Amino acid sequence: MTHSEQAKRAEETERRRVSLEELSWALRGVNRAAAEVDHALGSKISLRPLDYAAIGHVMSQEGEPLGPAELGSRLGISTGSATELVDRLERAGHLVRARDEKDRRRVLLRPTEEAVGRILGELRPLFDSLDTLTSEFTSEEQVTIGKYLRLATERLSDFVDYLTAEESQQRNQASDNSR
Q: Are 97 and 107 contacting, i.e. CB atoms less than 8 angstroms apart?
C-alpha cells in the first residue's frame, strides 16, 4: 500500500468517527451561528430584529412573492401588525409593494435593490469565507455536504409545517371547546 493510499484510508477511518449525534449538534451550531449573524447584521444596518426577519423572508422567497398577510403568518404576527411593518419598511426604502399581474387585488412585496445590495454587501466577507472553506473539500465531499444540507433544510421546513399544523389544530380545539 502506497503512502497516499494509507493516508486516504486513515482519513476515511477518521471521517467515520463522526457520529450522527455529532453531525446533529454541528448543524445546531450552524443554526445558532446563523441566527447570531442575522441579529448582528440587522443591528449593524439599524433594523429591528422583526424588520430584518421580514426582509429576509421577502428576499429569500422563491417563486411567488409574498404578500403582507403571508409575511405576517411567517412572522407570527397579525395582519394589522404586518401591514404596519410593511408600511415602516416601505417608508425606509427597504420594500416596495407591487400589484400582482395575475390578480390585481393582490399586493406583492419585493425588496428594493438598495436593500438587497446593502445586505448582500455586508454579507460578502462571510460568503467569501464560506467559499474558501468549500474549496478545502473534494468535489465528492462537496456533493455529499450539499446533499446533507439540502435534506436537512427540507427536514427543518417539514418540522415547521408540523409545528404550525399542530398549533393550528390546538387553537381550533380550544375554539370548539369554548362554544
A: yes
At residue 100, the pLDDT reads 82
Domain ranges (residues) in the chain? 33-126, 137-173
Q: pTM of the predicted model, to two decimals?
A: 0.74
Query: pLDDT of 118-177, one tens digit each?
Result: 999 999 999 999 999 999 999 999 999 999 999 999 999 999 899 988 777 776 777 677
Angle between helices 79-91 and 68-75 (to 10 degrees): 110
CB atoms within 10 A of CB 47: 20
First CA to last CA distance, the chain: 77
Helix/strand/coil for 48: coil
User: Residues 133, 137, 140, CA angle at the centre, nearest 5°?
Assistant: 140
Task: Please enumerate in sequence order all residues whose Cβ is within 8 A of that of 24, keeping only pairs 6 or more positions apart, or say none.
Answer: none
Tell me the CATH number for domain 33-126: 1.10.10.10
> Residues near 141 by Cβ (< 8 Å), separated by ≥ 6?
none
- DSSP category for residue 67: P
Residues in the chain: 179
66 near 105, Cβ under 8 Å?
no
Question: Which residues, other chains included, contact 124 with Cβ-Cβ below 8 Å and sequence gap of 6+?
Answer: none
> Which H helix or E strand runs over 99?
strand 95-99
